[in-house]
Amino acid sequence: MVVIAAALIQTAGNDPVLNMALSVSVPAKYQELVEEAGNTCPEVTPNLLASLLTQESGFNPKAQSPVGARGIAQFMPSTWESSGVDGNHDGKRDVWDPEDAIPSSAKYLCGIARDVKDVPGNKQNNMLAAYNSGTDAVRKYGGVPPYKETQNYVRSISSLAGQPAKGGKSGTVTTFEQGATVVKAAQEWLGTPYSWGGGDPSGPSTGSCCSPKGRSGADIRGFDCSGLTLYAYAKVGITLPRTAAAQYAASKPLKPGEMRIGDLVFYGSSASSIHHVAIYIGGGYMIEAPRPGTNVRFSPLDAMSDLFGVARPLHSATKET
């Protein structure tokens, strides 16, 4: 079950992203943890923390990256050793236990915020960049480092944290005309190679430096699944988060009879385990960047057996074109 928390959150400086109601979809069992931990310090809010956890693991407490990051907040072992806390006071610090990992993540963010408070630029962006690439890198470059992975990371979390609450008066969804434009934009790249981490608002790009084990194509110029959808929606002035799970969290779920061209199609066993996204083009088909070794193509919706649902991106009315 996914719930949308609508309580006002603590003000943090003058950043408008942080001065919003919590608008990120959070699994019900983690809502209280996120709301409590998200008030650990002024620089961290429930909305920002929920966005970070969505980006890091999609709220999967068993997540483990190829480089060794673990748990719902993706702590490296050395970082967990120095920053992990016993959040549920059961006498042990367990990186796999969200009751420990979520408050540890907030505490770690607060510590980072203090470490980079004197670095020029946007303080929130610097804090997020340091969470991803380390405080030394942020200090070295005087702000967000010129690492594509880190820049995408900061952009995705900030975008998701800035989404209006679903169902609120400040939000709207894409129009039919926008959906048609989205499909047309994606179709222009049919045949483009799949690239893990590839794709941005400008078009295809070389993927991130560190593709997960078994994923080739990080050095190929092209799109991955969410890179293609991010690009296509940028053509109608809508900024989507970077990952498939985060894009679902920033969208309005639809019933089967409500589908129309341009809607996003998601695959996974639950909202927290979404692993693929594509664009619905009508007639039971979608356009997608499927996987390493393939190209952007048309596919039937049942090309994969774990279709989770269809959703329509929710965005600020000021971004509508």
The termini sit apart by: 33 Å
At CATH's second level, what is the architecture of the largest domain? Orthogonal Bundle
Number of domains: 2
Oligomeric form? single chain
Number of helices: 10
Structural class: alpha+beta
The biggest beta sheet reads: 7 strands, antiparallel
Rg calc: 19 Å
Average residue-wise pLDDT: 82
Shape: globular
Q: How much strand content do the residues show? A: 5-15%
Following the backbone from N to C, one meets helices and strands in this order, namely EEHHHHHHHEHEEHHEEEEEE
Fraction of residues in H or I helices: 25-40%
CATH class of the largest domain: Mainly Alpha
CATH topology of the largest domain: Lysozyme
Number of strands: 11
Describe the structure.
With 321 residues, the protein is of the alpha+beta class. It has 2 domains: 2-161, Lysozyme; 171-319, endopeptidase domain like (from Nostoc punctiforme) (endopeptidase fold (from Nostoc punctiforme), Alpha-Beta Complex), CATH 3.90.1720. Helix content is 33%, strand content 14%. It contains 10 helices and 11 strands. The strands form 3 sheets. Strands 3, 6, 7, 8, 9, 10 and 11 form a 7-stranded antiparallel sheet that branches. Strands 1-2 form a two-stranded antiparallel sheet. Strands 4-5 form a two-stranded antiparallel sheet. Strand 8 (276-282) and strand 9 (285-288) form a beta hairpin. Helix 8 (176-187) crosses helix 9. It starts with a strand and ends in a 5-residue tail after the last strand.
